[in-house]
Design brief:
alpha+beta
Length: 247
């Protein structure tokens, strides 16, 4: 009886030992098989409000690839924009160099009637005075300042003459209507300097002219290129501007 009891106790003890060792190993092995086979084990757990959001390893990998792709696209866009800016700068530089080679001789006049002597004067050209309202005069002085305030008295006179000649040629009744219609972009917020004030007085009040030729259009080659301007009759270049009449 005692011997049987001892055998039974030994069997139970051995069973308990095997259970303690084998069961955890089996559970761990089963879990490892689940991870490697299906990737369904959650690798990340996040809380959003009252909802817990979980992602698998596969989800995290897809998100990482998407972020890498977005970063690459942004870098490519930056490189493309930089290349475009460099090409534009080269075009502007080339246009400015070409403009310098196309300039006919223009010298300060010694006759006193016109400010500049040009290679192609128009003997039939006559300058006229135009009466201005206080509002139009203020707009005109600011417009001349914005377009040529740093070009000196002659530069301001050329711009003022272009405005005056266009008003006469196209029948504009006010400087402001011409400014809007012709698409002048110069700022009107700068206070006119003495060159701008004197130029307006000389061209509009006294009927003076910077050159003996009608001028309608002008632009600055250092700032932009313009096939339209260059297709018109070139009259004179002064400092940073080129001036044209219509054909």
């Amino acid at each position: 009886m005692i011997r049987t009891f001892k055998r039974l106790a030994a069997v139970v003890s051995l069973s308990l030992i095997l259970t303690i060792i084998i069961v955890p190993c089996a559970v761990f092995f089963a879990s490892a098989q689940t991870v490697s086979g299906t990737n369904s084990v959650l690798s990340t757990t996040e809380s959003t409000g009252n909802t817990r959001v979980t992602r698998s390893y596969t989800d995290d990998k897809k998100l990482s690839n998407k972020q890498d792709s977005a970063t690459t696209e942004k870098a490519k866009s930056f490189d493309d924009a930089k290349e475009t800016a460099q090409k534009t700068a080269k075009v502007i530089e080339k246009a400015a160099q070409e403009a310098q080679t196309k300039m006919p001789t223009a010298t300060v006049s010694t006759s006193g009637k016109y400010l500049l002597d040009i290679a192609n004067p128009d003997a039939s050209y006559v300058g006229y005075s135009i009466s201005l309202s206080d509002y139009d005069r203020d707009i005109l002085e600011r417009l001349v300042m914005g377009e040529a305030g740093g070009e000196g008295f002659i530069g301001c006179c050329l711009v003022a003459q272009a405005i005056r000649d266009t008003m006469i040629l196209d029948g504009y009744k006010s400087v402001d209507s011409l400014r809007i219609s012709m698409g002048y972009q110069a700022s009107l917020y700068n206070t006119p300097n003495q060159d701008a004030l004197d130029a307006v007085s000389f061209i509009f009040d006294q009927g003076g002219a910077a050159v003996q030729h009608s001028i309608v259009y002008f632009y600055a080659p250092a700032l932009c290129t313009s096939g339209f301007h260059e297709s018109q009759e070139f009259v004179v270049a002064h400092n940073s501007h080129r001036f044209f009449d219509r054909w």
